[in-house]
Amino acid sequence: MSNSSTPHDRFFLSVIIPTWNGAASLRELLGGLVRQTVLSHELLVVDSSSSDETVAIAREFGAEVVVVPQGEFDHGGTRTMIAKKARGDILLFLTQDVVPASKDAVEKLIEPLLSDERIAVTYGRQLPNPDATVLASHLRYFNYPPQGGVRNFADRERLGFQTIFASNSFAAYRRTALSEVDYFKSGLIFGEDTCVVGRLLMQGDKVAYVADAMVFHSHNYTCLQEFRRSFDIGVLHVTERWLLETYGRAEGRGWQYVKSGLSYLLHVKKTVLLPNFILRIMLKLLGYKLGRNFTLLPQGLVPFLSMHRSWWARCRDVSVDYK
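Now predict its structure.
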């Protein structure tokens, strides 16, 4: 992609996209990036050995593609590898299945990084896809409200675990700040964005939620997928104990989600979905509790309870605190 002709050409922007068999959505994402009011100076795609046309599509849009073996993809480590290769002083991370909701989404996302040097990371609002279910739409509205804001380390007293919420599906980082915390941690089951924001805030930086920088991105998870994702959250919270010790327990946010969901279903007159919503809440809670106690479960069973099964084949080779 060519350099921006806007006043923002005083910085160098690198766009980084991890991919795996993303041909169905990648073209729409890259097409949306080409139409942005701020264009990237560098487009890097790190592909986990896709078997479809992902790599060809990326190269069609001028991306430099780095291919890694599928089994070696690491949420933190792979992003760190490609981030260190990037030349930008602003690093924009996306996932392959997001679509910009407007032509100025990138410009709005990176603006706080340009106007306030204390802000180290920004993340945008994720809107439900057109095919999103009612419950998937509610989750996006709950996690990504229309009001933005800036958070710092002191806000943990008021917001608890929500203080470090962020998503690398659509997030921009100041490279200097990211390098000061040694980029993303390797060996995590997932949640590399949450962990790095936690470390950035601890060193005095700030995170900005930019609600008017929007992309379409949602998942219509099944009940089983909801369980497995919550299981992995539990695993993350027990293997990275410092998150809860520093920023507080996550259960309070869970209860807010329950109350919000019930209110939302009543508001959209979808009370027929209340039993399904309650079932999902129970499965999420069960998954989370089991994840927090995964060391007590049969080792052969654990990967089948997880959404990130490949991680369990590699976790013996990484530094993880199971205590």
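The chain has two domains: 7-216, 223-316.
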